[in-house]
Amino acid sequence: MKILIIEDEPALGSAVRDRVRQAGHVVDWFKTLTDARAALIASSYDFLLLDLGLPDGNGRDLLREIRRDCSSLAILITTAQDQVSDRIAGLSEGADDYIVKPYDLDELVARIDAVARRYAALPDNVVMVGTIRIDLARRQLERNYQKVDLSAREWAIVELLARRPGAVCSREQIEDALYGLSDDVESNAIEVFVSRIRKKTGPGLIMTVRGRGYCLAENTSR
């Protein structure tokens, strides 16, 4: 997943960013609501970790803005122990879960995964392409009933395409899903990742649409 972290405490924000990246996610971290709004315009995210007490306002303002747009963005709010009213208000205004500071980083990752599973727990969370089975909820790919090990970025490409069967994803869309706003992207990075996926899954999973991008093979079913 691509996760946006809004946390103004430098030590905590840095630790959270590193731990969430370690769990295999793409992460952008900012410290203010202003930067958060700019990031949401510039990029697409699957998950928002939102601190409520920020230097330029209350995170609930951003929460309400996102939910007014009927966004399917998963949101987990973080609060101090004495902000019970904020936690209740945040949940009623559309947050999916909350965690109280100080928190254990492993618990945070577990809560992120739990919320993400709720969003993925749909009837079409398994995609079949021939003998390849893509389980979006478990973040797992099998070929001929054998699990295929993919790196975090290889999986991100497979997941992006699997969630858009029949649609062509441009190189720019794939780069946006794989990299944070401050990451350097090599010119042939996507081609390299796609080549690695094909070596692991066979050439029939991802198709190249010349001049446009990539898509899953046409024999895709849910």
From TrEMBL:
DNA-binding region: 124-218
SUPFAM superfamilies per UniProt: CheY-like
InterPro entries xref list: CheY-like_superfamily, OmpR/PhoB-type_DNA-bd, Sig_transdc_resp-reg_receiver, WalR-like, WH-like_DNA-bd_sf
Limits of the Response regulatory domain: 2-116
Top-level lineage group: Bacteria
Statement: the UniProt record of this protein carries the keyword DNA-binding: yes
The entry's keywords: DNA-binding, Phosphoprotein
Modified positions (4-aspartylphosphate) in chain numbering: 51
CDD domains: trans_reg_C (cd00383)
Annotated Gene3D superfamilies: 3.40.50.2300, 6.10.250.690, Winged helix-like DNA-binding domain superfamily/Winged helix DNA-binding domain (1.10.10.10)
Domain OmpR/PhoB-type residue range list: 124-218
Protein name: Response regulator transcription factor
